[in-house]
User: Fold this.
Amino acid sequence: MFILESAAQLEKAIIKARKQRATVKFISFGVYAVSGSKGNFYTVKCERGTRGERIVSCACKAGQSVKPLVCFHSAAALSLHVGLARQRQTA
Ligand SMILES: [Zn+2]
Assistant:
């Protein structure tokens, strides 16, 4: 789990997601399933904290580690989530 503070945090992970051709499946608003490198799927959750911070958690090993890591699953899910959130605001 990590708190997203800037888009710069995602840069490397987004490049990796593109290389891996990660597939993002919409489960519900804020919950996505992203394909891993072995064709398995990981659940990524994007939530708002009490102070409005963006909290992202991924079920993969990197996402579970003590050090907050931005895995490519999170980056792939976030790119979809941000688009959906924008649509909701304008709808
Ligand atoms: Zn992950």
Observations:
- The pocket of zinc ion is lined by residues 42, 58, 60, 62-63, 71, 73-74 (CB under 6 Å).
